[in-house]
Amino acid sequence: MTILPVIPTSPETPDAVFTRRRPAMPPRHLADLDLAGRRAAVAELGEPAFRAQQLSTHYFGRLVRDPAAMTDLPAASRAKLAGDLLPTLLTPQREMACDDGATRKTLWKLHDNALVESVLMGYPDRITACVSSQAGCGMACPFCATGQAGLTRNLSTAEIVDQVVYLAGVAASGAVTGSPPRLSRVVFMGMGEPLANYPRVIAAVRRLVAPAPEGLGLSQRHITVSTVGLVPAMRRLIAEELSVTLALSLHAPDDDLRDELVPVNQRWKVAEVLDAAFDYAAQTGRRISIEYALIRDVNDQPWRADLLGRLLHGKLAHVNLIPLNPTPGSKWDASPKPVEREFVRRLREAGVATTVRDTRGREIDGACGQLAASELTVVDAGGAVADAEVAR
Predict the structure, then answer these.
(1) Cα–Cα distance, 359 to 212 (Å, whole number)
(2) At 345, is the secondary structure helix, strand, or coil?
(3) pLDDT per residue over 335-389, tens digit each?
(4) DSSP secondary structure code for residue 57 in this structure
(5) Which residue blocks in 152-196 are alpha helix, DSSP H?
(6) Rounded distance, CA 90 to CA 94, Å?
(7) Residue 49 φ then ψ, to 5°
(8) Rounded to the nearest 10 degrees, how much is the dihedral formed by the CA atoms of 354, 356, 358, 361?
(9) Strand, coil or helix: what is 148?
């Protein structure tokens, strides 16, 4: 029997989520603060308030993360400001690329040696960043590498934002060939359950959409926040008056199977989760993305496609089918292509818009949590890992 992870009864207490102790958070960073907060912090250091604008322009406007490169600041001021507002949050452990450089994955070490991942994906018309919101995950979904690892801690707002700023800098450098040199989309589909780290994820979203130099100036409509179905937090999100896309990781249309695949379903059943998602769609006018990882002989039966079609018929939603990227040693595997095509056919026949996610990154442990898991395996075995190892 699947053991139900500890789940908060209220999204008001995010730090109590899925952890026995409160881990040490990183030092304060510029990206943790709005522009007014940055001005106050600069003033506390005895510097003129306009330094906050300078720092923000470098970090959000020019994508400069290294204080040494901010040469328009006096050296003494730069050292003082950098120490207090620009601490190093993310240290690259491994960087890997595939798909002719269009897919790039980075494994980061945090200040407490926790590991997180982020991915940059280039397309002819856009570049998308996939970022982590937690180190590990407490949702315990058995087919997910991150879920198998468990939760280490929530990320700070700045640790989330810093992943995006770094990836935006990679995009701006032209390293992603065949794509425009500007990051345009961000998906919270990396490690962790975003709505279990609710206040910091929402603060990060607000930094990403705020106009430069307060933030990155991305469109809300180009940001996707995923969830396995934390209903209180989903309803709280409705009240934020944001227009981000909500992605619901459903993976099964029936409670019997979803209880096993997504253990949080033991708390909030399929009907309740879908009701919250449909209410979000009604409030925002944004179509819900139903994420569904197709797993061979587990959730890919024709009758489950028909049931999913009935649940979604006439709703503002589309299904994003995900060919499972199996983790090493896992019993779970992707559905055969004929089964996948039949699943798609039945959904579309029911009037449900359906797409199949582009499969990328298998050569670089592309599934969420795989690279971190392999890193821990190497460390546990006593092996050395080179910094910034690039697989080409």
Answers:
(1) 33
(2) helix
(3) 999 999 999 999 999 999 999 987 665 554 544 545 555 554 433 333 322 222 2
(4) I
(5) 157-172
(6) 12
(7) -60, -30
(8) 130
(9) helix
Catalytic: which of 117, 159, 214, 260? 117
Beta bridge partners of 317: 288
Q: What angle do CA 100, 328, 101 make, to 5 degrees?
A: 10
**What distance in Å separates the CA atoms of residue 262 and residue 348, rounded to the nearest whole number?**
25
The total number of residues written for the chain in this structure? 392
Tokens 């179905």 belong to 229
- Among 9-23, 250-264, 342-356, 358-372, which is the least confidently predicted range? 9-23
* Cβ neighbours of residue 277 closer than 8 Å, sequence gap 6 or more: 234, 246, 248, 288, 290, 317
Catalytic status, residue 144: no
Residue written as tokens 């392999």? 374
Do residues 99 and 360 touch, judged by C-beta distance below 8 A? yes
Q: What angle do CA 50, 54, 58 make, to 5 degrees?
A: 165
3-state secondary structure 190-255: CCCCHHHHHHHHHHHHHHHHCCCCCCCCCCHHHEEEEECCCHHHHHHHHCCCCCCEEEEECCCCCH
| pLDDT score, position 373 | 55
Residue with tokens 């769609």: 281
Backbone φ and ψ of 230, nearest 5°: -80, 95
Q: H or E element: which one contains 289?
A: strand 288-294
Residue 219, both tokens: 């469109």
Please tell me the distance from the alpha carbon of residue 211 to that of residue 362, in angstroms, as a whole number: 36
How many alpha carbons lie under 13 Å from residue 323 in its C-beta half-sphere?
A: 15
* Peptide bond between residue 26 and the one before it cis (omega within 30 degrees of 0): no
Is 368 assigned a catalytic role? yes
Between the CA of residue 75 and those of 44, 83, 213, what are the distances in Å? 18, 12, 22
Q: pTM of the prediction?
A: 0.88
Q: Are 181 and 106 in contact (CB under 8 A)?
A: no
Question: What single-letter amino acid sits at 125?
Answer: D
| Tokens 């999204």, located at residue | 11
Q: Which of 130, 137, 144, 368 is catalytic?
A: 368
CA dist., res. 213 & res. 300, Å (int): 47
